[in-house]
Amino acid sequence: MIIMKKNNSYLRQRNVLEFQGVLYYDGDLSATTYIIIDGCGNWSYYQRAPGDAEGTEMDHGAFSCSIDEDSTYYADSAVYPGLSIRVFEFDEGVLLWNEDVYYRKKR
């Protein structure tokens, strides 16, 4: 846990390296979309065609931490300049991607 002081309050952020792993849409291993996060805080977003076991990388980039909100991060795209997706740590092993889509780490 990273604790940053801002003004007279503290902001709590998890080290993005702790998100390492494969996260599946709604926790479904056969979902059409999934995200791979490596040990350096980089992410790749994959989409599968129906019946295709392997996905195609649609986007990738790196995480940055919010400087204003607890447990809030940004997935900054390296493919689409200016695109930064707001990501919340919802629960242990669960990220809320773009405020409305849950991705759960394989257990």
TrEMBL record:
<protein>
    <submittedName>
        <fullName>Uncharacterized protein</fullName>
    </submittedName>
</protein>
